[in-house]
Design brief:
The protein is α/β, with parallel strands linked by helices. It contains 12 helices and 13 strands. A 7-stranded mixed sheet has the order 2-8-7-6-5-3-4, with helices on both faces. A 4-stranded antiparallel sheet has the order 9-10-13-12, with helices on one face. A two-stranded parallel sheet has the order 1-11. Helix 1 runs antiparallel to helix 9 and helix 10 runs parallel beside helix 12. The radius of gyration is 21 Å and the shape is globular.
């Protein structure tokens, strides 16, 4: 008998592989692979999640009313245009589920977030990657890749894993060049880390029409990756579609409570941003001193490039770090086999990382 067959495109999906957390035989592991916040979550968020445990027998608010109100007040947005999800990853999948069919195309940049092609293929659509320029999204290349089949354009700004971004003017130029029927999705997961004056998370473009939306997450600066909480700001027509296809209780009550508390703890978020603003350039400078170049980043990680010489390449560096209890993220899956992505961890963690890579560059076998 023939086995049940999945929908077209599903078997072409390369499952997303998250960053590792453990190493065999090593007790203390320094994890710098998943862009998790170095300071952890707000104490207020932890307390809110603990308090919610008392009522875990109750279903959560399926409309996330209180969190949407809080997000609206915090960012100056209409709560009716906010949709919450189990991480922004779920929202990216919901977008493709709601708008894509077999034969459609989903456009993103070559080194864009790995979930974009996964979400596209899971919906039966074809992912299309536009070339980048200097590891940065190119508006011209994206527009040149648009075809009559293009249904969605995903743009991570800042981008993961490169840490680069395009300006508000370039963002506007991209939207202006896209056909009106194409949904433009601005993935602003790392927006809270950006201090550049010419940056925009995309709110003004969402407000300008019916074909642009912005996604955000609590997994990065709010350090709630384990809670799985994200949100989107959309035109009313797009919010309506997402609310139709999402699950009725897609966000847990603990996540809703912790998210609201984290949002209100502005001092803790400012501390996380200050930490990143200090240690990100410190790490780039220290790596440069030992001959390792990094791509200028505005997020909470750096992309480090290694030569292709045998024994000195990214693969060898990754193996050396693992032997010394440090996990970073190999970038072969992002078409960057000569690079490693390194999260901005604590000061102690980064000093140990630099010490290990210094020994690696010297050709030594272990941290002295």
């Amino acid at each position: 008998m023939a086995a049940p067959q999945p929908r077209p495109g599903v078997l072409q999906v390369k499952p997303y592989i998250g960053g590792e957390s453990q190493l065999p035989g090593i007790t203390r592991v320094i994890k710098l692979a998943s862009n998790e916040s170095a300071l952890g979550p707000s104490p207020h968020a932890i307390e809110a999640a603990r308090a919610d445990a008392e009522v875990m027998h109750r279903y959560p608010d399926g409309d996330a009313i209180e969190l949407r109100k809080a997000l609206g007040a915090h960012h100056g947005l209409d709560p009716a245009q906010i949709v919450c999800g189990a991480g922004s990853d779920e929202i990216l999948h919901l977008i493709c589920q709601g708008y894509c069919s077999p034969g459609d195309e989903v456009l993103y940049t070559k080194h864009g977030f790995a979930i974009y092609p996964v979400a596209a293929q899971a919906s039966g659509a074809t992912p299309v990657a536009a070339p980048e320029v200097n590891l940065t999204a190119s508006v011209d290349n994206l527009l040149a890749a648009v075809t009559p089949k293009t249904k969605i354009v995903f743009l991570a700004n800042p981008n993961n894993p490169t840490g680069t971004y395009i300006s508000a003017d370039e963002l506007k130029r991209l939207r202006a060049g896209l056909p009106e029927h194409v949904l433009f999705v601005i993935d602003s997961a790392y927006a809270e880390f950006v201090g550049a004056n010419d940056y925009s998370a995309g709110v003004e473009l969402v407000n300008a029409g019916e074909n642009t939306m912005m996604t955000r997450t609590f997994s990065k600066i709010y350090a709630m990756g384990g809670m799985r909480l994200g949100w989107a700001y959309c035109p009313p027509n797009v919010a309506d579609v997402l609310n139709r296809v999402r699950g009725p209780f897609n966000v847990t009550s603990a996540a809703l409570a912790a998210g609201k508390a984290a949002l209100e703890d502005k001092a803790f978020v400012a501390l996380a941003r200050e930490h990143n603003d200090y240690w990100r350039p410190w790490l780039a400078d220290e790596l440069a001193k030992i001959g390792i170049t990094t791509t200028p980043s505005v997020a909470n990680f750096v992309l480090a490039r290694f030569p292709e010489a045998a024994g000195r390449d990214a693969k060898s560096a990754d193996a050396f770090l693992r032997k010394n209890g440090i996990i970073v993220r190999a970038m072969g899956g992002y078409h960057l086999p000569d690079c490693l992505r390194i999260t901005i961890g604590t000061g102690e963690e980064l000093r140990l990382l630099v010490k290990a890579l210094t020994e690696f560059q010297k050709g030594n076998g272990a941290i002295q």
